[in-house]
Amino acid sequence: MANCILAKIGQLRFLPATNLLQPYRTTTSKHYNPKFKKLRKEKFLKINLHDYNEDIDNLPEEKVRQKMKERGLLPTRPWNDRPFYVSATGGVFEAYIPPEGDGKASIVSTTRAKQTVELLEKKSKSMMAIRKVKSFDEDFDTKEFCRIAQDIYVKAHESLVNNDRHALRTYVTEKAYPEFRHNSFGKTIRWKFLESLEPPRVVHARCTDVISKENIFGQITVRFHTRQQLSVYDRFGRLLHGSEILAKDVLEYVVFEKHLSNVYGNWRVHGKIIPDWAPPKDPSKLTRLMPEEKTVVPEKTDSEEITETTLVADK
Fold first, then answer.
1. What angle do CA 287, 289, 291 make, to 5 degrees?
2. pLDDT digits (tens, 9 = 90+) for 166-182
């Protein structure tokens, strides 16, 4: 039996070598199945990576243009435009003209009667403006607005007294902010709102569009007749204006503005209307030393010196 097995094995060396080879995979990159070779090739994309170490500033203009055309880039354009946002108008449009003697003159007087008739004629424009405001704010009511306006007026002045610049920006517009802060640096302000002598009322209303027809601003003038206390001290503690003891009756016409087209717009103080017939402001209580007047001796001209020399020579 053993001799038979050895005889069979010995015969294998005479067989061709190809019959002994078995199929196996090699380490080459070729796929064993050549089918779908083209599709497998399209699965991979050759990408030209950007050379970040390349110095673009020193390249010639033609080379830069060629590289930009290869990448499909357009040449850069100089950006000179600046975005801006209009949150407030630059002034009071169609300002209210207060009647002369308001708060003092009698309603029965002839002058006051004429002014009342003129105001009734202009009231139609104010009613149209209030109707325009109601188209943006359905819950708008003039009586309720007067209460809100007085609250904004008081909080704006309290922010100025406390030197709270961030809170002041929420109660006054960008146009009124520098007017509120003018000449207040280094000074101590004491201000109190005591009471309202008359309930505040709306006396004027206007609406206008800025840049486009859809960008609408509204301005409402409110009449305040109140009693207040004001005293201003300089950085050395000297009283400049007013008094902390005496209270004064103040009649003011304050303009409130709102960006109606803006959903998040708020009513803010935009300015004050000072009539021509208003009394002048009280001067500062500080006393200053008057400068001494220097006597100036007139200088002699050349012609006068020549005449003097000739007279001396004649003598």
1. 145
2. 999 999 999 999 999 98
Distance, in Å, from the CA atom of 209 to the CA atom of 103, rounded to the nearest integer, reads 34
Alpha helices in the chain (DSSP H): 2-11, 37-42, 61-71, 110-136, 142-161, 165-171, 177-181, 302-314
d(CA 174, CA 257): 11
| Residues ≥6 apart with Cβ < 8 Å to 152 | 171, 256, 267, 268, 269
Identity of the residue numbered 30: K
3-state secondary structure of 160: helix
d(CA 210, CA 261): 11
- On the question of pLDDT at 109 being above 70, the answer is no
* Residue for token pair 């053993």: 2
pTM to 2 decimal places = 0.64
What are the CA-CA distances from residue 133 to residues 40, 61, 129 (Å)? 68, 58, 6
Q: Strand 188-209 and strand 239-259: pairing?
A: unpaired
Helix or strand or coil: residue 94?
A: coil
Burial class (CB in 10 A: 0-12, 13-18, 19+), 204: buried
The answer to whether 252 touches 156, Cβ cutoff 8 Å, is: no
Percent of the chain beyond pLDDT 90?
30
Residue corresponding to tokens 């499909």: 72
**Burial letters for 76-87: b for 16+ Cβ neighbours within 10 Å, e otherwise?**
eeeeeeeeeeee
SS3 190: strand
Q: Based on C-alpha coordinates, what's the Rg of the chain?
A: 45
